[in-house]
Amino acid sequence: MNIQQTTKAQAQQIFIFILAMLITAGIIVYGYTAIKDFTQRQEEVEALTLQKQLENEFEILLSDFGTIKRPEIRVPEKFDFVCFSDGFKAKDDNADICNSGNDAYSPVACSAYKNDQANVFFIPDGSKNFMVIDNKIQINSGSVLCVPVRRGRINLQLESKGDRILASTYS
To answer: Could you tell me if 119 and 85 are in contact, meaning their C-beta atoms sit under 8 angstroms apart?
Structure first.
């Protein structure tokens, strides 16, 4: 009798151990999924915040002729460049975002640029593109200005010309 009871008790311990392992695995999977979703939402919020900040800077400055401003724009560090396209120049097939030999190359951003779907592009991702002030951005040289992201910021200088904004970079 004693040996039989010990065997039953050991068999029950195995089932309890398996149940504990399944519960632990479920908690780990749930935690990983929750953290992943939270991180993804945070990136979306950062991108939307950046878009709104850029839109506000451009809109406020547009009506203030002659004003030069160097806004402090925070950019998520996953981006290497923020590129702006000139709405007053013809589309250039050799623009930085369309030239595969360039650091700022992005096929997604190039397609949006060529089809006038956006005038602000985030590289290397390329999927976070949007239009700011309906093609009223002007660039001094070339048709695309790509500003490198350094320590989560870009050195962007904006100058109001009344009907457009002249965008450039500074050191």
So the answer is: yes
